[in-house]
Design goal:
Elements (H helix, E strand, L loop, with lengths): L6 E11 L4 E6 L3 H4 L4 E6 L2 E12 L4 E6 L5 H5 L5 E5 H4 L16 E4 L3 E10 L6 E6 L2 E6 L5 E5 L4 E4 L8 H6 L1
Parallel strand pairs: 7-12
Antiparallel strand pairs: 1-2, 1-6, 2-5, 3-4, 3-6, 4-5, 7-8, 8-9, 9-10, 11-12
Length: 178
Amino acid sequence: MIRKEEVYKIGIFNKPHGIHGELSFTFTDDIFDRVEAEYLICLLDGIFVPFFIEEYRFRSDTTALVKLEGVDTAERARMFTNIEVYFPMKHAEEAGPGELSWDFFVGFRMEEIHYGKLGEVTDVDTATLNTLFVVDYKGEELLIPAQEDFIIDIDRKHKVITMDLPEGLLALDDMEEV
């Protein structure tokens, strides 16, 4: 059985394309193209289910057409409409450090060398020039710059990011008084 901590979300299947079971796939990470993996994982009724990739081709920087084994008709492909797509962490870890997408770090625990445990990375905001980790700190949302200068260590096995943030960047004392 595949567990949530063994995968990370890379996109969503949109709708069938054509009559032979191809699916339109919007992705946030093209790791499936950069790492040797024969399957993608779909979240169906709360269960992570692997599906072997028969073939795929890119349509743009963020979309591809994917043909899964055993999905040979538009009707069968319709079952995958709006289904979340995940990728196995073990295959993503085969990628070099510069090849990982920011989404890989969702679910990691963030620690800061002066403040200790900050919380879990719940999202990564790439909407601006400065990428930010969104961290759940005691129910509050912290935005932490995802800059290499601040990252001391990334422990992939234990899913921990250790940071050394500039003084004054985190005003945790102020947050606790509110």
